[in-house]
Amino acid sequence: MSIDSTWLRCPNCFLDLSPIDDRVFGCGSGHRFDRSKHGYLTLLPPGAPRTIGDDPEMLRARAELLGSGAYAPISDALVEAVRSVAKDAPGSPFPGGSGSSLRIADLGCGTGHYSAELARALPELQFLLADRSPDAVRASLRALGDATGIVLDIWRPLPLRTDSVDIILNVFAPRNLEEFARVIRPGGSILSVVPTERHLQELRRDGLVLDIPSGKSSRLIEQLGDAGLTLHSTAAVEYSLQSDAATRLRLAEMGPSAHHVETLALHAAGARVNIEPLDPVTVSVELLSITHVTPT
Ligand SMILES: C[S@@+](CC[C@H](N)C(=O)[O-])C[C@H]1O[C@@H](n2cnc3c(N)ncnc32)[C@H](O)[C@@H]1O
To answer: What are the chain's domains?
Structure first.
């Protein structure tokens, strides 16, 4: 596990970070950050709230669900989107490019599942895995040991250098469009996966997951212009997932709803483990490919 500081800037003064010794990174103003024994750096600005992000139980449920292949069509769509973005990028390792690696920042990476799938399909890519949850960054580094792992807060100015990223991956995670626009290089892309109103609708009817606000992707598209971004394309991924009660329980436990749903409802879902097959659950997301507005 190693930290590539060429992605990074100081969360306090925004000067570039570089290695001071084999486990300390620092900036020209004298701010210092220790690499944890698990291999990641915590780059939070002063006064950041201590606990935000997924806890170990949510991460376990998410890892089990994703490991079962339940969301494989989403990772397949991401692989295709990265292939398509990458083949046209300057310096692309793909046909038509010059051979250097593209840099992908997975912001709100969770368990690192989608980056790991991308790395399997397209081994030339370089990854930065970042999340507010140290447990998530730790888990994601287990999935992708070569990556640079950072604990950060997406809602704050990012500790990432301007124009340092080719592709931002942002899957079911918070977005900070102004900062995303700053850190992607001109012509770079943001690949954002956003749930539609139909996503897991059967579980919402059972009270197992929270409501998804309607028009999530259209609101995101409306906000792009203010950040100097533009929508390149959208792709819908929608399918019926055959789900037993254990799968339903994982879907409930892995989301933010895990903090809100009635314990009774979770237990009820657990009690249904032996009743199979249950009705399918709808998985429905939009994959938005977003780029910088090209100046005319
Ligand atoms: C629904 S999970 C999605 C994780 C992963 N992208 C996936 O789809 O498997 C949302 C992730 O965003 C992280 N997160 C929440 N708030 C955050 C913040 N302010 N800054 C960075 N990460 C945050 C959570 O810890 C969690 O890992």
So the answer is: 50-292 (3.40.50.150)
